[in-house]
Amino acid sequence: MLKYAFISEIKGVTPENYYAIYENEECFNLIIGSPNMQNTEELVKRLASEGYTMMNFCGAFNEELLEKLRTATGRNVKMAYVRYFPEELEKLTKLPSLKEFGLIIEGADKLTEVCIESDSCNIHAYFVRDMEMAKEAAKKLVEKGVYFIEMCGWF
Question: Which of 59, 56, 12 is nearest to 31 (CA)?
Answer without folding.
Answer: 56
